[in-house]
Design goal:
Length: 236
C-alpha cells in the first residue's frame, strides 16, 4: 500500500504538522511534504533553511509493543534515504555520519530530525535537491551542486515514502541488529577520526563501531572507549 502524501505549498514545520496528524489519529505512514517551510528545524533547535526546490517532508511511526527503541528510527531513516540516493550518487561517494546525516565526499546533503508526539515518533527529513546553504560550520552540498539533475520534490517524496516503509517493516520484523548492520556498511569506516561535541563536552578519537543499541563508540587516545548517546559528530 502506497503511503498517503499530503502536499502543502508552505508551512511552518512539516514535523509540527505531522505531529498534529498523529495526535488526531491518522494512519501510520502518512506524510506531509511542503514546498517551503518558514520554521524548519534541525537538531538541537537549529533553523533549517527551506527554499523551494528541495525536499521537506515528515511522517510518523506509532510505537508498538515489541518494537526496537524509538530512537533507533534515526538509523532506519538514514538507511532508507541512503538506499534511495544511490540512484543518483555512487555508493563510494555517499556515506552516513552518526547517527543519520547523509554526506557526499564529506559534505552534508540531508538532515533527519526525530520528535515525539504522544505514542508516535515523528520523522522529519530534508534533502538538498536543488539548493544547499553556504556559510555554515560544515560543508554542504546538493544534487544540483554536484552537477546532477535532481528529481522533483514530488517524485522524490513518493520514492522516499516507499523506501522508508520497507525499512520500517524490516526494523519491526527482523530487529534493530539488521538495521545497524546495514548502517555500518554505509558509514564512515572503523578508525575514522571524529570529534564529538556532547552534553559532557568535546571529545576526539577514532570511530570504533556501534553498540547493540546504536550508541557511537569512540576510542580515545588513552585507549578508553566512550559510548556516545547524543551529540554532534564532525569528521576530522
Amino acid at each position: 500500500m502506497t503511503p498517503a502524501i499530503q502536499h502543502v505549498a508552505e508551512t511552518g514545520s512539516t514535523n509540527a504538522d505531522v505531529a498534529a496528524l498523529a495526535r488526531a489519529g491518522a494512519a501510520e505512514g502518512s506524510w506531509i511534504r511542503a514546498d517551503a517551510q518558514t520554521g524548519g528545524r534541525g537538531r538541537q533547535g537549529r533553523p533549517w533553511v527551506s527554499p523551494p526546490g528541495n525536499f521537506y517532508g515528515s511522517t510518523f511511526v506509532r510505537r508498538l509493543p515489541g518494537d526496537p527503541p524509538a530512537s533507533s528510527l534515526a538509523f532506519v531513516a538514514a538507511v532508507a534515504l541512503d538506499a534511495l540516493l544511490q540512484a543518483w550518487i555512487g555508493p563510494e561517494q555517499l556515506s552516513i555520519k552518526w547517527p543519520n546525516d547523509l554526506l557526499v565526499d564529506g559534505a552534508k546533503l540531508s538532515g533527519i530530525l526525530l520528535e515525539g508526539a504522544d505514542d508516535a515518533v515523528v520523522v522529519g527529513i530534508g534533502v538538498n535537491l536543488a539548493h544547499h546553504p553556504i556559510g555554515l560550520d560544515r560543508p554542504t552540498t546538493s544534487l544540483a551542486g554536484l552537477g546532477l539533475s535532481p528529481p522533483s520534490p514530488a517524485d522524490f517524496a513518493e520514492e522516499l515514502a516507499a523506501s522508508f516503509a520497507a525499512w520500517v517493516a524490516r526494523w519491526r520484523g527482523e530487529g534493530l541488529a539488521v538495521i545497524l548492520a546495514r548502517w555500518q556498511t554505509r558509514a564512515h569506516p572503523i578508525g575514522t577520526a571524529l570529534r564529538v561535541q556532547s552534553p559532557d563536552g568535546a571529545l576526539e578519537g577514532l570511530f570504533d563501531g556501534l553498540t547493540a543499541e546504536g550508541a557511537l563508540k569512540l576510542r580515545c587516545p588513552d585507549g578508553h572507549v566512550h559510548q556516545v548517546h547524543a551529540g554532534d559528530v564532525f569528521l576530522l
